[in-house]
Each structure stands twice: as structure tokens, then as C-alpha cells.
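Could you help me review a protein record that somebody else here produced? My question to you is simply how this chain folds and whether the C-alpha cells agree. Thanks in advance; the entry in question is below:
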Amino acid sequence: MKQVFKTIILASITTFVAFSLIAFPNDSFEASIRGLNIWWEVVFPSLLPFFITSELLIGFGVVRFIGVLFEPIMRPLFNVPGVGSFGWVMGMASGYPTGAKIAARLREEEQITRVEAERLVSFTNASSPLFIIGAVSIGFFHDAKLGVLLAVCHYGSNALVGLCMRFYGRAEEKRNATRHKKTEKKFSIKRAFCEMHEMRISDDRALGQILGDAVINSIKTLVMVGGFIILFSVLTKLFFLIGLSPLIAIIFQFILSIFSIPIDMALPLFSGLFEITIGAQMISQKTATVLSQAVLVSFIMGFNGLSVQAQVASILSGTDIRFKPYFLARFLHGALASILTVVLYIPLYLNKQTFELNDMPVFNQDAENSWVVLMTIMQNIGPVITLLFLALTAVLLYRRSRA
């Protein structure tokens, strides 16, 4: 009976969305183009190098080498193997959903257990510095100093989530007797090299095949990511057109009033829970204190947005990693990021405002200009990079089908 009810609900929602697309074809088309442009110009070219590099580093055993070296740090702090440090750093550097991608690959390689993978996924999916500083702070708020506050709160709360999640799944580990022994925590460069070598020779693929697999697997994941970006861009627009967003925003108005945040932020907050970029842009356009805006942006970035969560769910679906721990950790990340924003607002933002523009160091102004230039370059050459690698993937798949 439960499955029948689930079937009816899913069929009804899909049918409703289909009729909404028919009712608002022009708006749906514009929303899909907007999502496509985001993926085409920025997401694909910015994430592709990280995805390919991570695939190669795992295949050549370098990640295993890093894991042995960082075991004494990652195990006591986050209760995950040292290889988790690779996923954590790459996740922060490149943004969502790199952390989930790496955790899934490590699980497929059986370098981590299911519980360890679930811990790792919960705190390795973060916004990239390019998005926080370049897109949100400079692009939407036109304030580079706000990016420092948002970045510190986002990555700091991300680490706190990892510390909290270290206690997750201990009972299951005890039942399955998968706890690591303390003897495995010893630092040893020699053992790290040995395990890296063993990992590399255990992969019997030729070098060309390893490179080809890295490109193909990365682009398959990015195409999936692009599909979700377009889908949620359209859904967000449709919810607004049919009046569902303003209706649900009433609930958020009550929540915001409790925290003394302007209630007209309710609709941007609801939109941000679906898609971070849209929500952050809408928040920046509202008249409110910078603190209120920063708190809400910190929350939606920590929550990741349902669009990113759907991408993560799709990546994890090919493994035995459960989605629920990651989903619950998103609320924790959002809450901690908001609290840190309130605590650090004065020292990291207001105190910075006491300096006159002419008193600011030249390198600060140059840094802000550098982010603007970087975003411009991404928008100009991003589509070319996307086309080239899509064509390369088509050639590789064609050659393999003919082999």
C-alpha cells in the first residue's frame, strides 16, 4: 500500500509539472536557458579539471599515499581514513558535488567503509571560493570584504559538521567490527609509498585507458549535474508562476520573524533552498541589513540547495552510501554557518569597514579585480572548453564501441 501511494504521488507531481510546462512554455524555456548558461559557461569548465585530476590520482594510487600520511590527523578529528583529506580539500577547492564524487569513488575502490563514506560526504560538499567570492560577494553584493566573512563561516562550519559527524555510525561499526586499530595511525612515508605502488600495480588498465576513463567518467557526471541545474532552474520558475512559492513563503515569514529578520526575505530564502545561485541573487536585491543578508546566504550555502542535493543523491545511487546522513548534515551545516556569521560579523566585516577606501592596501583592490577578471574569463572561454571536451568524449566513446 505504501508503494502504491508513493507511485500515485510521484505520477501526480510529474503530471502537474508537465502541464505547467505546457501552460508556461516561454518562461520555462527562459529558465532552462539560464540554467544551461550557468552550466555551459562556469560549472563544466571549472569542475572538469578537478574531476579528471581526482580520477587520475585515485587510479595512480596517489590518494592512497595521501591517506596513509594524513591518517594520524583525519582519524582523530573526523573518524575517517586519511584518504578523506583528499576529498575534503578537493571539495572545498572546486565546490559541489566534487566531495560526493570522490567519496563515491573511494567507496567503489573499497578504501573506505560505508559508514566512513557517509561521514565523508556529510562535510566534503562545500561551495568553491570562486562561487563565494567571485559570484556571490562581488557579482551579487559588489562587496569583496563580505566574501571573507562568508568563506570563513562556510568552511569553518563545514569543519564543525565533520567533527560532529565523527560520532555517527559508531554502533554500526561496532556490530560489523570495522573499527580501525590504533596501530594504523602511525605516520610512515615508507608504508605510504609501498601502498601507493601496490595500488597502482593492482590496476591492470593501460595508461591510455586510465586517461580515457577519467575523461569519460568526469564528463558523464558533469552532464548529469547540468541536467539537474536546468531542471531546478525551471522548477523554481514554475513554482513562482503558479503561486506556490509565495504561498510556502508565508511559513518562512513566521520563522524569519522569530529571528528578527525582515519577512520579505522569505521568498528569496525559499528559492535559495531550491537553487543557491537564484536565492543568493534575490537576497542581494532586497533592502535589508548586511548581517541579515549574510546570515541567509550562509544558511542556503550550507544547506546546498535541493538542486545540489539531487546531484549528490544521483552520484551516491550507484553505491551503498545512504543519502539520509548527508541530508541531515545539511541542516546542521546551514545552522552552524548562520551562527558563525552572527558571531564573526563584527570582527571580520564591520571592523573592515572602518578603513577608508584610499587606506586599503593595493593588493586588496587587485585581489577584487582578479576575481572579476576570472569570472569574465570563465564566461568567455567556458563554452569553448565545454564543446571541446564533449567532442573528445564522443570520439572516445565511438572508438570504444568500434573496438
